TrEMBL record:
This is Polyisoprenoid-binding protein YceI. Residues 24-184 form the Lipid/polyisoprenoid-binding YceI-like domain. It comes from the Bacteria. Keywords: Signal. PANTHER family: PROTEIN YCEI. InterPro entries: Lipid/polyisoprenoid-bd_YceI, TTHA0802/YceI-like_sf. It holds the Pfam family YceI. The lineage of its organism: Bacteria, Pseudomonadati, Pseudomonadota, Betaproteobacteria, Burkholderiales. Residues 1-22 form the signal peptide. It comes from Massilia aurea.
Length: 190
């Protein structure tokens, strides 16, 4: 008899936990983008990462139950010139051979006003991890949801630019990771 009660209690708890979780969204990569903004010789430069994936579980009615993770292929950083793209993949910069992915995994997402969230999580880049927090805007676009934000980082904290490239007079230490992720409810598998 106790095992039946335990089984019923377990199924009730599992059902209530499932009800609190947010719904998975499918990212529209064509309508999304991730880029880095920095100054090179005091001239602003914005360059995209061409390959990334984002997993977002979000329900506007339960934003605190949301979660997000992003994986960026570091070798996909496109400064606009094949020679420079090869250079930034080298050991002194992204070291893409050893660290092919940069990741962000949320640890909490909290409402911060109408259409705004505060996101905290762990950013891992070139083998270094840091806890980060940044604001995020959320807006509906038809059946899709658009998440936009900016995450300021210091490149040297992640060893991006080693050796002679630690000199911030050529490439500034301040970098802003800008992103726009457009997603829609995932269609159930048939």
């Amino acid at each position: 008899m106790n095992s039946i009660k335990a089984l019923l209690l377990a199924s009730l708890v599992a059902g209530s936990v499932a009800a609190v979780q947010a719904a998975p969204l499918k990212t529209d990569i064509a309508a999304s983008g991730v880029s880095a903004v920095f100054k090179q010789m005091n001239v602003p430069v914005e360059a995209p990462f061409r390959t990334f994936a984002a997993q977002i579980d979000y329900d506007a009615a339960k934003p605190a139950a949301a979660s997000a993770s992003v994986e960026i292929t570091t070798a996909s950083f496109d400064i606009g010139d094949a020679m420079y793209n090869k250079e930034v993949a080298k050991k002194e910069w992204f070291n893409s051979a050893q660290f092919p992915k940069a990741t962000f995994v949320s640890t909490s997402i909290a409402p911060a006003g109408a259409g705004k969230l505060t996101v905290s999580g762990k950013l891992t880049l070139k083998g270094k991890s840091a806890n980060v927090t940044f604001p995020l805007t959320v807006k509906a676009a038809g059946a899709k949801t658009v998440f936009e934000g900016q995450l300021p980082i210091k490149r040297l904290a992640f060893n991006i630019g080693e050796g002679e490239w630690k000199d911030t007079s050529m490439v500034a230490d301040e970098v802003v990771i800008k992103f726009r992720v457009t997603a829609a409810p995932a269609t159930p598998a048939k």
